[in-house]
Specification:
Layout lengths: L13 H16 L6 H17 L1 H12 L3 H27 L2 E3 L8 E9 L2 E5 L7 H12 L3 E5 L5 H14 L5 E3 L4 H8 L5 E5 L2 H12 L5 E4 L5 E4 L5 H10 L15 E5 L3 H16 L15 H12 L7 E3 L3 E2 L4 E2 L2 E4 L16 E7 L4 H7 L6 E5 L3 H10 L4 E4 L20 E2 L4 H7 L1 E9 L14 H11 L3 H8 L3
Parallel strand pairs: 3-4, 3-6, 4-5, 6-7, 8-9, 8-15, 9-14, 13-14, 15-16
Antiparallel strand pairs: 1-2, 2-18, 7-17, 10-13, 11-12
Length: about 500
């Protein structure tokens, strides 16, 4: 008889996770996920899901983040449809073995690189773009022929619940599964042996994922973040630049995006003009009271609201607010906020902001901005607004980041021909388009030889003549090979 004091077993524990992985390995072992037909059918089902349940997805995003309909449609639904279509278009070609050259050392032979699925993979996604950051890596995992588990973020509960429901309805449940939950469920999943783990989120959790993966020598891809800087030169179309900065900060989920502008670096002389332009365009976009604007997403949770409030109320920066700073705890909204010349040692300058606060750092000349950026960790993205060709070249040469963009913010994410990923503290690995396929594929080396051309020099007894011949073969020395064969 069960004691009333006995703790209830969690809905999803290590035992359940182990059973789940076993079922997926059995499904993968049948070989069905390897066929082009299965991969394409699942991708078409995802596309069908996005078309048929578009309104449900937008409603879930409204519930979790108060995302404007247009923003939700463009940044999540449309981009995912494009990802499915792009992958379906290229999949057959991506799956084909890649012929490569051979050398005289292995003559006669032929060689190729064969992409094969890792096996059973885990995707842990984030709350800020809960559909885009969940489904896009799953597209890559399926395209590569893997069985996959998706763990959505519990911080966006409506989206997580809908993902579980839709995947169950539209995808092959024996090879594609969703596990909902919070830290206990994620921990149970991380205890298992996976063939690849793809995590999107912050560096703190990224380290936990990496440590768990290391126990099983499991490869990981980490899509993290960082303080994405924006350099603003003076020789620009100021109105367009201001609009694009706003679009890449407050119109990106109110700054809750890994590629959103974290801070601006500009000259002391130009900063006042830039601030005036930003204020003017912000009022056009969000009205005189942004807190009631339907076009501004809310902060995802009270914990994140408290974190941002702490950054804003720091004694070192509270007097540096030049625009905004208003907040509503009940609606979890913070107005677009601009701060000028905050100290380097302030909280806001030493952690990823991930919200609607935008510090402006000033320098004497724009070239100094490079050393400011390079003094910190490598960001996921870095941006510059300039018409100066020399400055553009120096920016590309001198700034190391996951991705660079000139004269806009965030748009590189929309190009499936570019890899999207970080470097150093901002992440490991890349996704989007074929890069997602490659991330979830092992590139298997294959060499074909016949029984012809068997060289006795390979085998004992080893003589000086054989040594000369092997040295010539390994060195690609045709004349030396002939001399050795002739006994010279």
């Amino acid at each position: 008889m069960t004691s009333e004091h006995e703790e209830k077993k969690p809905a999803f524990d290590s035992e359940a996770a182990s059973s789940l992985v076993k079922d997926l390995r059995d499904a993968f072992g049948t070989g069905k996920t390897r066929s082009y037909e299965w991969r394409a059918s699942q991708l078409r089902s995802l596309l069908k899901m996005l078309n048929e349940r578009e309104n449900d997805i937008i409603e879930a995003l409204r519930s979790d983040l108060s995302k404007p309909v247009l923003e939700a449609y463009v940044t999540e639904v449309v981009m995912l449809k494009s990802s499915c279509e792009f992958t379906l278009k290229g999949l057959k070609r991506w799956m084909m073995p890649e012929k490569v050259k051979t050398t005289i050392t292995t003559f006669p032979s032929s060689a190729e690189i064969v992409p094969e699925p890792f096996g059973v993979v885990l995707v842990i996604s984030a709350w800020n773009y809960p559909f885009m950051l969940s489904i896009d890596p799953v597209i890559g995992a399926i395209a590569a022929g893997n069985a996959v588990v998706l763990k959505p973020s519990e911080i966006a509960p409506a989206s997580s619940s809908l993902l579980a429901k839709l995947f169950g309805e539209y995808l092959n449940s024996s090879a594609v599964k969703v596990v909902e939950g919070a830290v206990p469920e994620t921990s149970a999943l991380l205890e298992q042996k996976w063939d690849k783990i793809f995590y999107t989120g912050n560096g703190k959790v990224g380290r936990i994922v990496s440590a768990a993966a290391a126990k099983h020598l499991t490869p990981v891809a980490l899509e993290l973040g960082g303080k994405c800087p924006v350099i603003v030169d003076s020789d620009i179309n100021l109105t367009v630049a201001a609009r694009r900065i706003i679009g890449g900060k407050w119109a990106l989920n109110n700054g809750q995006a890994c590629i959103a502008a974290d801070h601006i670096i500009t000259t002391k002389d130009f900063a006042p003009k830039l601030i005036d332009a930003l204020k003017l365009e912000l009022e056009k976009f969000f009205g005189k009271d942004p807190l009631i604007s339907e076009d501004l997403s809310r902060i995802v949770s009270s914990n994140h609201f408290a974190r941002l409030t702490k950054l804003l109320d720091d004694d070192k920066v509270s007097g540096n607010i030049v625009h905004g700073g208003r907040r509503n705890k009940d609606s979890l909204k913070i107005s677009p906020t601009i701060l000028l010349d905050v100290p380097e040692d302030s909280l806001i300058m030493n952690e990823e902001i991930f919200g609607p606060l935008l510090p402006i750092v000033t320098v004497d000349n724009i070239e100094e901005s490079f050393s400011v950026i390079n003094s910190g960790e490598k960001p996921l993205a870095a941006y510059i607004f300039t018409n100066n060709k020399t400055l553009k070249g120096e920016f590309v040469r001198n700034i190391s980041a996951g991705g660079l963009l000139i004269n806009d913010i965030g748009m590189h994410f929309a190009n499936p021909h570019l890899p999207f990923g970080g470097v150093g503290e901002s992440g490991i690995g890349a996704c989007h388009g074929k890069f997602s396929f490659d991330t979830f594929s092992h590139k298997k080396a294959v060499l074909y030889r016949s029984f012809a051309g068997d060289a006795p020099a390979r085998y004992p007894p080893y003589t000086p003549g054989k040594l000369r011949l092997l040295k010539a073969l390994l060195g690609g020395d045709i004349i030396g090979i002939i001399r050795a064969l002739l006994g010279w």
